[in-house]
Specification:
single chain; about 475 residues; alpha/beta; FAD/NAD(P)-binding domain; Enolase-like, domain 1; 3 domains; 5-stranded parallel β-sheet; 22 strands; binds 1,4-dihydronicotinamide adenine dinucleotide
Length: about 475
């Protein structure tokens, strides 16, 4: 039986990044993946293919509606969905192939098959229809991720009632698409199909969309998406979805009243749950929490010596970048180094147009907790580059400690929010203040000047807008 220092089960961003860092630290490393391709949900059926479709559908809308205001007339814009989907698949293939090359380049042994921990230091690898092999290691890292929540009252059938996986490859835009859940998945994939011509209605149980993000910004995002043609029913709890003659009927309650919605397809995006099935964690005594997530301490150790867990399968936001940082920290700790993840400063992004990005606390959270904070805001309509780009929707907003001025949180609503938030994340990582950021030179003309101006607005010093 081949013995390794570290075996990683699962090759998503958490697992494969952990494997690379482990190999860099001189540890003999193996990675086990049950699916045919490496890269996990993010690369194969999550972040990457959805961003490919978001980019393509954004270009389609630009060609149809946006180009004309730049003086570019494009006649007869038509949708070639097979090419759009094929491009998405090609992007995925390039990246999953890249991960395989990275494994090889770092001399990481890759095993294909279901990895099951049989004893605290042993893993059986069962390939689909093949013969099982056993491998051993002093340290085993579980990075098995998450799967969409499949509710018994609205079960996925893969055809009419679907998860995000199938919503990445509809053969044609559904005439009517019902989206259940106004989280990242519902809003992103709802946007894609709305842009490609579907009539999209989003049903959300809460009185707001994009829970976890700044409420004011989320409301502005809802307004923008509504203007683009998406319909929203908030405070609407879907109790069941039934399929009859290939059409879906959702039953929901809103304000005590029962409502029904019919659609060609229903995307159920009501959250994801930790996936630890088949990995043998429970059988070897690894403790799970009440939501089926693997319990770990601050060093990612489970209650069983030599077994660790990272990413979506443990508590915390289900985000690829959180999983990556945990993977790195976990193997650094295994190697006796000081691994650490700063959970206070993890950005979250919804990649709609405009994109909504947030980091740290929100204004509503500060109010709820009675925290003494100051807020600075700046609109992109007062930013030269945004106007030049014809992309002046949205705001930047800072929440700073009222006494120390330390930045506690920020939100950006803009076409480029996912990139703009990175600067704020970096300043927050260094414990910076709004003044630090506001006094930093930003190139002109750039969208990032709106970030600087919002930071200045905390002290009511913004230059290109009245400070009230
Ligand atoms: P989510 O948990 O973010 O949102 C689900 C929404 O569904 C909630 O607002 C909830 O109130 C609503 N809901 C639940 N049951 C309902 C019902 N019966 N009727 C009406 N509404 C109902 O879940 P989502 O969007 O599926 O995402 C899953 C995970 O994946 C999240 O942790 C998310 O952060 C992550 N993710 C992140 C992305 C990103 O960062 N861009 C992209 C995709 C997923």
């Amino acid at each position: 039986m081949e013995k390794f220092d570290v075996i990683i089960i699962g090759s998503g961003p958490g697992g494969y990044v952990a494997a690379i860092r482990s190999a860099q630290l001189g540890l003999k490393t193996a990675i086990i993946e049950k699916d045919p391709e490496l890269g996990g949900t993010c690369l194969n059926i999550g972040c990457i293919p959805s961003k490919a479709l978001l980019a393509s559908s954004d270009h389609y809308v630009f060609a149809k509606k946006g180009a004309a205001q730049h003086g570019i007339q494009i006649a007869d814009v038509t949708l070639d969905l097979p090419t759009m989907l094929a491009r998405k698949d090609k992007v995925v293939k390039t990246l999953t192939g890249g991960v395989r090359a990275l494994m090889k380049g770092n001399k990481i042994s890759t095993f294909s098959g279901l990895g099951t921990i049989t004893e605290p230091s042993k893993v059986r690898v069962q390939p689909d229809g093949g013969e099982a092999t056993e491998v051993a290691a002093d340290h085993i890292v579980i990075a098995t991720g998450s799967v969409p929540i499949n509710l018994p009252s609205m079960p996925f059938d893969g055809e009419t009632v679907v998860s995000s996986t199938e919503a990445l490859c509809f053969a044609k835009p559904p005439q009517k698409l019902l989206v259940i859940g106004a989280g990242a998945i519902g809003l992103e994939l709802g946007s894609v199909w709305s842009r490609l011509g579907s009539e999209v209605t989003v049903l959300e149980f809460l009185p707001r969309i994009a829970v976890g993000f700044d409420l004011e910004m989320a409301n502005l995002l809802q307004r923008a998406l509504t203007a683009q043609g998406m319909k929203f029913h908030l405070e609407t709890k879907v109790s069941s979805v039934k399929v009859k003659d290939g059409r879906a009927i959702a039953t929901a309650t809103k304000g005590g009243e029962e409502m029904t919605f019919d659609a060609d397809k229903v995307l159920v995006a009501v959250g994801r749950r930790a996936f630890a099935e088949g990995v043998g964690a429970h059988q070897v005594g690894v403790a799970l929490d009440e939501r089926g997530r693997i319990k770990v301490d601050e060093m990612f150790r489970t209650n069983v010596e030599g077994i660790y867990a990272i990413g979506d399968v443990i508590a915390g936001p289900m985000l690829a970048h959180k999983a990556e940082e945990e993977g790195i920290a976990c193997v650094e700790l295994i190697a006796g180094k000081a691994g650490h993840v700063n959970y206070e400063v993890i950005p979250g992004i919804i990649y709609t147009n405009p994109e909504l990005a947030g980091v740290g606390i929100t204004e509503d959270f500060a109010k709820e907790k009675g925290m003494k904070v100051r807020v600075g805001k700046f609109p992109f309509r007062a930013n030269g580059r945004a106007l030049a780009n014809a992309d002046a929707e949205g705001w930047v907003k800072f929440i700073a400690d009222a006494e120390t001025d330390r930045i506690l949180g920020a939100s950006v609503l803009n076409h480029a929010a996912s990139e703009l938030i990175a600067e704020i994340v970096a300043v927050m990582e260094f414990g910076g203040s709004s003044e630090d950021l506001g006094r930093t030179v930003h190139a002109h003309p750039t969208l990032s000047e709106a970030v600087k101006e919002a930071a200045l607005a905390v002290e009511k010093h913004a230059i290109h807008i009245g400070n009230r």
